[in-house]
Give the backbone structure.
Amino acid sequence: MNKLQTGSVYPWQTELERFIEQVESAPNRENDGWTHERKLAVLEKLVRAYALYQDENGAIIDPHSESERYYSTPSYALAAAVLVKEGRHDLLESAAAALTHSIACVVEEKAPDHHPDFFPIMMMGAYRILKNLLPEQATAWKQQLSRIQPEQTYIFTMSKMKNPNRMINWNAIMISGEFLRATEGIAADSEWMEMYIRNYHLPRFTSLGLYQDGPLDRPNSPFAYDIVTRFHLGVMLENGYNGGCALEVRDYLRRGALSSLLTLSPHGEIPPRGRSAQHQWNEAAAAFVFTTHAQQAYTAGEHGLAGAFRRAADLCWQSIGRWQTDDGKLHIVRNHYSSEARHGFEVYSNHTCYSLWTAAVLAHTLLHGKEIDRIPPTSIPAEIGSRVLATDGWFQTVIAAVDGQQMLVQTSINDPYNIPGIVRIQRSALPSLIGPSSAGHADRGFTGFAEGDIFPLSYTPAWQTEDGKWHSLSEGIPGTLEFDRDGGIDPQDGGGNVQMERSSASDGETDFTLLWEGPFPGVREIRTHYRQVLGKIEVSYELQGNIQNVGALIPLMAYDGRERSVIHHVMTAGKETESIRVEYAGASLEVIPMTEGTNVVWPEELTAVACRNGLLKGARLECGGSRISFIIRLPE
């Protein structure tokens, strides 16, 4: 475990080795019941729910927009084909019709919403399953598939874009499908794929194996597009890719799988940074990554690590399953609003498409996960031990976990779409959203909301300047350039700096301090200190500058689209202590000021703040001086 395949050092090697020691000395977990058959049942409910929307041409019609959207149909074709392979033969005709229609869409350049790049990996997956069951149709399919000319057929190619910065996840997704086409003898130019991987995709990986999407000169690095790109490259490896870049790809994917394992939340969710965050397909892609690496680790004799990967995969299935409705459909974003409301959806999020893409990715996971049930599950890093991890590249996130509890701090200070501060707190014994699980925004970017105000709300320092105005670190540092949601932000625009001043992790405790340097209104620098033990997070802020009062913004889960929390402003009898208690989904969370003379204030602009999970309500702790501290209690 000291070196990975290329011989280079993994940045989180020490934390990884400590975790493996902890796992190997701890008893295995009881099997939580996520067997192949149980996973298959989740997939089957999904597929049968959307089979009802297939038209006479084989296309899947979205019930809300009443048209075929994006890559819903090829996603359905693959997922239904996998179910046919598993013995659900009544879906054979439906899967074949969807495949026929999908191939025609690409060949005739009529892919819905101009997304042909996403079709080939799903078309080829379905084709490889169905060709022996329907040999006459397979001949026609193969003839049609052979007409594809990648540089002309797809969108994100150098022939079309003529821009290396646009060779992002779309291009990698397309290449993974083209590789499957090549394995069938339909496309043979392997050097064409090698050129794209070598020149445009390998340079995007960080030392942690995380894939940076978007222009590298203006980084835009969502965790969703990291995990989904690694999923597609992983499908290539699982299907025998052994080209000139294979060793480097395998090394980066191994690193990325380890990093995803170390950052997975105790509820089985990847970090929420960036566009498409908290969409169910995020965890579907993660389930594939964890499943395939569990099997690789087990074959290599790394049984403790294999068990952790297996447990991580199970948690991802569980995190998706809890958002599946009784009729088999999905809430594609983690809230209970109706699909028509599109709360927390991106401008491109579509109910049928993202439900069925989730199904397609889970189908790939089942195809390549036949051996995972033999691996005894252990614990994931968020469930055992203590660690503080800072991501590299432009992912700008600190992850601290202790024994089933995790907190995430974003450190981006000039990005209105990814605001700084504590943006997620989760504990395995509590509902996943209570922490809360996502923050507000300074700019909605791609994201739309059914209700609520756009406001940068997270656990973050606040202060009142001498002119009487209140400011907060979550506002960040405004840049001189207009926010570009597609291209990302210039990391130098606006100035400022964040550094980890110190950190430590010992048995049952994490402790770290971040130093934030301006320019901030009236403030030169800010120190934020976080100490975490199971059930409690102690937070303190110290500011240097010319200010009247110091404060802290407190985001509180208020409404998830179905259930409203009850928020209490508690005054303790006989004392001047004020505190806050949130009661939600049968659990509670408390915020208790620790600085004498602190008042709890409820600013009008924080009454209903939009976030992906619903609505937040914000409070502000206020007191004199330049330092404030409080405790977040997370009781079982």
The longest strand covers residues 547-559. Confidence is low (pLDDT under 50) at residues 1-7. DSSP finds 15 helices and 18 strands in the chain.
